[in-house]
Amino acid sequence: MAESPAQGRKGVPATPQLRLDELLDGLQAQVEQVRATRDRVHTLLDAVLSIGTDLDLDVVLRRITESAVALVDAQYGALGVLGDEGKIRQFITVGMDESTIEAIGHYPDGQGILGLLIKEPEPLRLPDLGRHPDSVGFPAGHPPMTTFLGAPVRVRDQVFGNLYLTDKRGGAEFDDDDEAVLRTLAAAAGVAIDNARLYEDTRRREQWLAASSELTRSLLSGTDTGQVLHQITATVRALSGADLVTLAVPFDGGDELVVEAAEGEGAKQVHGLVLPATTLAAKVYHSNQRVSSSALSQEQQAGGGSAARIDLGPGFLLPLGGPEHVRGVLQVANMAGGTEFTNATMTMISGFADQAALALEIAEHRREAEHLLVLSDRDRIARDLHDLAIQRLFASGLTLNSVLGRVSDRPQVAERVQRVVDDLDDTIKTVRGTIYALRERDRAESGGGLRGNILAETDQAATVLGFTPALRMTGLLDTDVPDSHAEQLLAVLREALSNAARHAHATAVEVTAETDGSRLRLRVADNGRGIDPAVTRRSGLDNLRERATDLGGSFTLTPNEPTGTLAEWTVPLPPQAQASLMS
Fold first, then answer.
1. Does residue 274 sit within a domain?
2. Which residues 6+ apart lie within 8 Å of 384 measured at CB?
3. What is the pTM for the complete model shown?
């Protein structure tokens, strides 16, 4: 009897064999699934390690986006960082080349599906994002996208941003596993971002403290205030990473400001720019309130300003100093299209500005204290000269006068003694003039009398000459000389000292200003090259001569001995001045 085809060898049925093959195939599929899950977990762990190995925030954000694309096998991915007002302020993309990004233009601000994830920060999966009722479509140049998976990234329970993934490769939809993996990556990303931000804040605080210490040291060591202002703007730019930083200070005590220091792109265009009272900087100065904007050049600023000359985008302005004494206004800005500044950055710069204002105030008080000390020393020196030197010189002169009567029979000796007495008299006048100069120097700084103004002119000329001219003043210059004559004398002195510096190349200059109540005379003698006969155009000397003739006086320019030039300007005083002297 033959075997039935349904029976196996030796009469064993074939059905158990088929069932065993099915079980083996199912087991093999489960093994493949476990292996795929294992590989995906390893990939996830590698991604977590990758995003946690760097502390640079920009690098961390880029790695998070790249890891998300790789884990869910998406074609496109992006990470939108949220700003203070819930809008996207930074957008990192993966999967698009530079030409595509340029064709799209500016990154999204949080409308449509992206905005939905911002409003409701929960994972979101869509088979076709174009069919969702909140979809607003794509801008021109944007590649077509279908499937969508999004998840929020939280940092300490605060939504930092959102991950957006589109177009799973192979045309499949994103599944539960993709969502679970993305949520796990987002949680790890929050920790990595928090660490990077803490590191960045610590590093910036160290820079801030170092910059504050250097600024204080510079101010207290006597560095010029203008140079310190430039140092402040350079430091603020380094701390904030801004494209342009300007510092405006009050201009001539009015409502206007002037940009005293500028650092960054377009700094030369705005340095020295006068800002009217209607500009944003002037408003910050008077209100003592910080102002921020996402587009400074689009703000209403009547009369213009730096934002009117340069196309500025995000930025902020803050007062330099406390409410009682605002010293200026700092403007920190990026160019149009640049990133906005975070609250942490603005707070840090505000703290540095307060520190800088305090350092400026301390340095100013120190300079005032040093000035008072100098004035005290001048008073002491003047007192000593008057009480000691003049009295002794005067006593010596009286003693020599008494000797004259005893040597009247010896003419040569009497002549020598008389010459010494005359020299002592001139010395006493010189010392008295020095005493007046010491006591009037502080008056010169506050716009004092003629003596103080003459002293101020000679001090100012020292910066051009390279040395301080010798100065001698005799007579009641402050009381006997009318204002009109005093102004002319100062103009003549200014021109004469300028000629000595520019043309004569002198190494010594002696200035004498004196009055006897009836005439006013100014003599400026130098040891320079003298008068060049080849020079025929002397408009400056003609002006000096006209100033003398207009007042009924004269001006002479003669050679000085042994070298140099002697300029002498003499004018009579008006009768009312002489009458007041006699009364």
1. yes
2. none
3. 0.47
Q: Are 569 and 555 in contact (CB under 8 A)?
A: yes
Contact 264, 243 (CB under 8 A): yes
Question: Do 401 and 470 share a domain, yes or no?
Answer: no
Q: Are 80 and 114 in contact (CB under 8 A)?
A: yes
Do 186 and 231 belong to one domain? no
Residues 556 and 501 in one domain: yes
CATH code at position 243: 3.30.450.40
**DSSP, res 7:** B
**Same structural domain for residues 433 and 459?**
no
Residues of the domain holding 235:
222-341
Q: Which two tokens stand for residue 232?
A: 């402040």
CA distance 87 to 67: 24
Give the chain's length: 583
Quote the DSSP letter at residue 485: H
State how far the alpha carbon of 162 is from the alpha carbons of 5, 89, 119, 189, 463, in Å.
64, 12, 11, 11, 63
Between strands 519-526 and 244-250, the pairing is: unpaired
**In a shared domain, residues 159 and 232:** no
Judge if 154 and 82 occupy the same domain. yes
What are the 10-residue block averages of pLDDT along the chain, 583 residues in total?
Answer: 48 61 66 56 58 72 83 86 75 84 74 81 87 78 85 84 87 85 81 78 75 69 71 84 88 75 87 83 85 82 70 87 76 85 81 76 66 64 63 70 72 79 73 61 56 82 81 82 89 86 80 90 87 52 85 90 89 68 43
* Domain edge (last residue) among 416, 442, 468: 442
**Same domain membership, residue 458 and residue 433:** no
Greatest CA separation found in the chain?
Answer: 186
Check whether residue 544 and residue 453 sit in a common domain. Answer: yes
| Tokens standing for residue 254 | 């009015």
Count: domains in the chain = 4
* Count of other CB atoms within 10 angstroms of residue 482: 14
- Distance of alpha carbon 68 from alpha carbon 57, whole angstroms: 17
Contact 126, 132 (CB under 8 A): yes
Q: Where are the alpha helices (DSSP H) in 221-311?
A: 225-240, 267-270, 280-287, 306-309
Residue 428 lies in a domain: yes
Answer yes or no: is 456 within a domain.
yes
Q: At 149, which helix (H) or strand (E)?
A: strand 148-155
